[in-house]
From TrEMBL:
<dbReference type="InterPro" id="IPR005761">
    <property type="entry name" value="UDP-N-AcMur-Glu-dNH2Pim_ligase"/>
</dbReference>
<keyword id="KW-0132">Cell division</keyword>
<dbReference type="GO" id="GO:0008360">
    <property type="term" value="P:regulation of cell shape"/>
</dbReference>
<feature type="domain" description="Mur ligase C-terminal">
    <location>
        <begin position="326"/>
        <end position="449"/>
    </location>
</feature>
<keyword id="KW-0573">Peptidoglycan synthesis</keyword>
<comment type="similarity">
    <text>Belongs to the MurCDEF family. MurE subfamily.</text>
</comment>
<keyword id="KW-0131">Cell cycle</keyword>
<dbReference type="Pfam" id="PF08245">
    <property type="entry name" value="Mur_ligase_M"/>
</dbReference>
<feature type="domain" description="Mur ligase central">
    <location>
        <begin position="107"/>
        <end position="303"/>
    </location>
</feature>
<dbReference type="InterPro" id="IPR036615">
    <property type="entry name" value="Mur_ligase_C_dom_sf"/>
</dbReference>
<dbReference type="Pfam" id="PF01225">
    <property type="entry name" value="Mur_ligase"/>
</dbReference>
<dbReference type="GO" id="GO:0051301">
    <property type="term" value="P:cell division"/>
</dbReference>
<keyword id="KW-0961">Cell wall biogenesis/degradation</keyword>
<dbReference type="InterPro" id="IPR035911">
    <property type="entry name" value="MurE/MurF_N"/>
</dbReference>
<dbReference type="GO" id="GO:0071555">
    <property type="term" value="P:cell wall organization"/>
</dbReference>
<dbReference type="GO" id="GO:0005524">
    <property type="term" value="F:ATP binding"/>
</dbReference>
<dbReference type="GO" id="GO:0005737">
    <property type="term" value="C:cytoplasm"/>
</dbReference>
Length: 476
């Protein structure tokens, strides 16, 4: 592709005549750059790509794009206001705007993105459709599973994978960081879903209003006939509606009143759920527990209905859905206790998890959780309060240090829980709970889900699930 075709619209702010150069590819990594490619220097949080421009030139790049005012380079250099924004536009053009060639679903919100995306993928595939998935657990394209570092891949990887995808649908978990870092810039969505909003990432965002505003920005990228699907059970979902510059027929609401597009009737005593659509009532019996998962399933149902799938086929797929690794994943203790591993890392998510145990008749509830370095320390007190209110035994432990020292993290746990139980070693905290449980008790281990440990602990295990399995194996 010619250079001018890639760079004419990236907003340099200058009247530049681009050389007639054939571009063979795009790279942001000087270690893997190939001859004839364009190198985009990204100022990262730990490493600045501008420091590796010379290395990229030595490797044979034809053009460099960056933010800094640089001169005397041996290849053409294009200065732009934002390298990340430029990368998104360049990648989108280079790979032929792949989001315009398939049905694309973007899911945003604090909690529920992963479960909702897996549910929707399961529905589509049960109905004979093919579906790519980009999210926090992994990426799936053409049936192949790829590991992922971020909830939303960077713009270059996302556009490349979309271009390679032969699937009819693509589901993308869209994080707030993904939006601010232009990872989905230039893309167009057929459906945008808003699951909920809870306090999180305020180490990254100034406040909840800014966090909300970033999330709301996803809906500006809907295709002309695209539809917004919003959870109106959530306070922030209600705030989103006035901000959407869409016609009424393009907004679908999940809510608690009869005039909503989908309403949920749930009986706590029996655990049964009915969903009501246009005065038609359907029974829904999920294998996975919790009202939050009922809402996730309802969001997936509402979306799939807009795609033209039948209610019966959607319900059947949801009732067969086995769950997601590390998302309310249940393991059973031989003595009759229930162990739940979940990614919950906000106060609202804690509330959903622990209330589920109460509704299920748990004799006692144990809760093990921790925090990540300096990540949004302001949410910790509310998390501890919810845990102590809804559990019988609340154990604070380590998650990841993320730059703070062992002593600093340990002290912060004692400060938050001066009269409670603090066991820094996560595996020993789990062991303590499992040694105390009896028949009818529930144990929640939250915060990491299916993630592997970054720290070394006493028990030789790589994850919460592996720790539980190791401890239980010793009791056999």
């Amino acid at each position: 592709m010619k250079l001018y075709a890639l760079l004419d619209h990236i907003g340099t702010g200058k009247n530049i005549h681009f050389p007639d150069i054939d571009i063979q590819g795009i790279s942001i990594n000087s270690n893997t750059v190939q001859t004839g490619e364009i190198f985009v220097a990204i100022p990262g949080f730990k490493v600045d790509g501008h420091n590796f421009i010379d290395k990229a030139i030595e490797a044979g790049v034809s053009v460099v794009v960056g933010e800094k005012d640089l001169t005397n380079l041996t290849v053409p250099y294009i200065q732009v206001p934002s390298s990340r924004s430029a990368l998104a536009q360049i990648a989108c053009l280079y790979y032929g705007n792949p989001s315009q060639k398939k049905t694309v679903i973007g899911i945003t919100g604090t909690n529920g993105k992963t479960t909702t995306s897996f549910m929707l993928k399961a529905i589509l595939e049960a109905c004979g459709q093919t579906c790519s998935l980009f999210g926090s657990l992994n990426n799936v394209v053409n049936g192949q599973v790829f590991s992922t570092k971020n909830t939303t891949p960077d713009a270059l990887e996302l556009q490349r994978q979309l271009a390679l995808s032969e699937d009819e649908y693509a589901i993308i978990e869209v994080s707030s960081q993904g939006l601010t870092q232009y990872r989905v810039a230039g893309m167009q969505f057929d459906y945008c879903l808003f699951t909920n909003l809870d306090r999180d990432h305020l180490d990254y965002h100034q406040d909840m209003d800014e966090y909300f505003s970033v999330k709301a920005g996803l809906f500006d990228q809907l295709k002309p006939e695209g539809k917004a699907i919003v959870n109106h059970y959530n306070h922030w979902g209600k705030k989103l509606i006035p901000r959407l510059n869409l016609r009424d027929e393009h907004i679908l609401l999940l809510g608690d009143e009869d005039n909503y597009d989908l309403k949920v009737n749930r009986c706590i005593t029996t655990g049964s759920t009915q969903i009501v659509e246009a005065n038609q009532t359907y029974n829904l019996n999920l294998k996975i527990l919790g009202f939050h998962n009922v809402l996730n399933a309802s969001m997936a149902f509402l979306t799939a209905r807009q795609m033209g799938l039948s209610s019966s086929s959607i319900i059947k797929a949801l009732e067969m859905f086995p769950g997601v690794p590390g998302r309310f994943e249940i393991l059973k203790h031989p003595i009759g206790a229930i162990i739940v591993i979940d990614y919950a890392h906000t106060a609202e998510a804690f509330n959903h998890c622990l209330q589920t145990a109460k509704e299920a008749g748990a004799t006692r509830v144990f809760h093990i959780f921790g925090f990540r370095g300096n990540r949004d320390t302001g949410k910790r007190r509310e998390m501890v309060n919810v845990s102590q209110e809804l559990s019988d035994v609340s154990i604070l432990t380590f998650d990841d240090l993320d730059g703070v020292t062992y002593h600093e993290m340990e002290q912060s746990l004692y400060d938050l829980n001066p009269k409670g139980l603090v066991i820094p070693d996560r595996t020993l905290a789990i062991k303590e709970a499992l040694e105390q449980v009896d028949e009818g008790d529930w144990v929640f281990i939250t915060g990491k889900g299916a993630e592997t440990y970054e720290l070394e602990f006493q028990i030789p295990a790589i994850s919460d699930k592996a720790t539980v399995q190791y401890i239980l194996s010793l009791e056999e």
